[in-house]
Amino acid sequence: MSKITRDTLYDCVREVLKGSKDKQRKFNETVELQIALKNYDPQKDKRFSGTVRLRHIPRPKMKICILGDASHCDEAKANGIPFMDAEALKKLNKDKKLVKKLAKKYDAFLASDSLIKQIPKLLGPGLSKAGKFPTILTHADNMVAKVDEIKSTIRFQMKKVLCLATPVGHVQLTEDELAANVGLSVNFLVSLLKKNWQNVRLMGLHLVAFAGFTRCDELVKLKCADVTFNAEGIVVKMESSKTNQYQDGVSLVIACTGQVTCPVGMMEHYFRMGVVDHSSQAKLIVQTKGERLRKNGVLSYTRLRELLLE
Asked: For residue 263, how many other CB atoms are within 10 A of its CB?
């Protein structure tokens, strides 16, 4: 069962859709899910990989090419889907540059069951190296439905970093459709993790500490009201600092990066987890209980230092 509440999920979705309307683009913006993990060692732990089909297509303009026999090529032509037959593949002559160009041109491939075994012989290892080896297409399959299935499927794959990102929708989807895709994606990822929700890390404090060059004892003293959000990022007010000779306080300006490791985005997530009042004089850094913040559990300097050094 998801530990993300329905209200929290819909609040996030509304903010995303509102932001796209406030600053409209000339293209259909993709909504990407970004997740940071903890307690995973990419060098030691077994890397996971899994795919899940979402209820609503996240990338409607995804380009898919059919590598088919005569029957599949005719069907693809009738449905307006790009296709190539065996003769067209032979003309590439296993040229690495041409195969690489083909792989770059399309997001995914479907191949007839009678042709798929010949792909390595016709094209070499180029498509496999690009991670785009074709999915099998039989004559019993509905081609249009199969293409929609590919467009609706997303992959979570653990590589060398602890940050994962995958498209889960676009801004033309309704609030309910986007929320359904996000909820399904998060729950599927959690099912792949060795310790489920324990691996989803609250990184806000760690990123703020890094971006602001702050010390552990300075972070412990922060109050909720000391953090102010604006259009550019956040402003963190510190009453005292060892680097401030006059001890009259200092304000740190931390900009929004828009990346997976954005300290501003993670700090917003930190506030949402505890339903923290931005104007409160309560301590900003508190202990956690599962994925919720314990409002009365003030974190000590020693424990904070241990978390930052993990």
From this structure: 25
Distance CA 192, CA 270 (A): 24
How far out from the chain centre does Cα 251 lie? Answer: 31
Backbone angles phi, psi at 32, to 5 degrees: -110, 135
Taking only the tens place, the pLDDT of each residue in 269-282 is 666 555 455 666 76
Beta bridge pairs of residue 108: 64
pTM of the model: 0.58
Looking up tokens 């899994």 gives: 50
Of the candidates 199, 190, 203, the residue with the CA atom closest to the CA atom of residue 261: 203
Number of other residues whose CB lies within 10 A of the CB of residue 61: 11
Distance CA 108, CA 280 (A): 50
In the chain, the DSSP E strands lie at 30-36, 49-53, 64-67, 83-84, 108-112, 135-137, 153-157, 163-170, 227-229, 233-238, 250-255, 286-289, 292-298
The DSSP output letter for 23 is: T
- Give yes or no for residue 196 having a pLDDT over 60: no
Structure tokens at 292: 């919720």
What pLDDT does 222 receive? 77
CA 192, 193, 198, 200 torsion-angle sign:
negative
CA–CA separation, 166 and 6 (whole Å)? 21
**Which tokens go with 69?**
């026999």
Compute φ and ψ for 221, nearest 5 degrees: -80, -10
CA distance 78 to 236: 60
Ramachandran region, residue 72 (left: φ > 0; alpha: ψ -120 to 50; beta: rest): alpha
H or E segment to which residue 292 belongs? strand 292-298
- In order of 26, 30, 193, 230, 269, the CA distances from 20 in angstroms are 11, 10, 32, 17, 19
